[in-house]
Amino acid sequence: xxxxxxxxxxxxxxxxxxxxxxxxxxxxxxxxxxxxxxxxxxxxxxxxxxxxxxxxxxxxxxxxxxxxxxxxxxxxxxxxxxxxxxxxxxxxxxxxxxxxxxxxxxxxxxxxxxxxxxxxxxxxxxxxxxxxxxxxxxxxxxxxxxxxxxxxxxxxxxxxxxxxxxxxxxxxxxxxxxxxxxxxxxxxxxxxxxxxxxxxxxxxxxxxxxxxxxxxxxxxxxx
Length: 223
Description:
Mean pLDDT: 91
Shape: elongated
Largest sheet: 5 strands, parallel
Number of domains: 2
Order of helices and strands: EEHEHHEHEHEHEEEEEEEE
CATH topology of the largest domain: Rossmann fold
Low-confidence stretches: 1-17
Distance between the termini: 39 Å
CATH class of the largest domain: Alpha Beta
Structural class: alpha/beta
């Protein structure tokens, strides 16, 4: 029990519930306007259908919790990658038809592909969480023949980017600063808003190609 200002103690379960609500609110981010190639994420809504696939990471679970209803979850396959967040038990409590908790996206992708390959016509796909998760899962869904109209997205949580170096073609995950160092070739790269849907990654270009060593100070991508 925790005492409030007036001396009355609040049950621990209420404190935990309020904490989850605050985390869910804080996980929402309004992206600034940008170029046309930059993806625009939407907001999940429950749709009619016999089969539903929900893929989320970290705080993306909160978006699923927002639309969950017993009749929807009874027809849903939930694939969740915690990445340090604490929503797995809450998702299990929704009693989805199937639930899988994966340690990473790469460890979960084979399951995602199998579910998509075995999907029936009319499958509704819900993607929530980081841009890296949504971009990669969307690419898998489209490759499996799922129409764009059946895929919904909602960003929650980290604004870190999945970046491709245009010079060595290597992918660097979870980039939070600009410029950043390519994890493959070591070049100092500028974080561009240009986005490749095929690669599910933003593009990074060398910042000091013409003047080696002249690299601006790092700052947050959205600072």
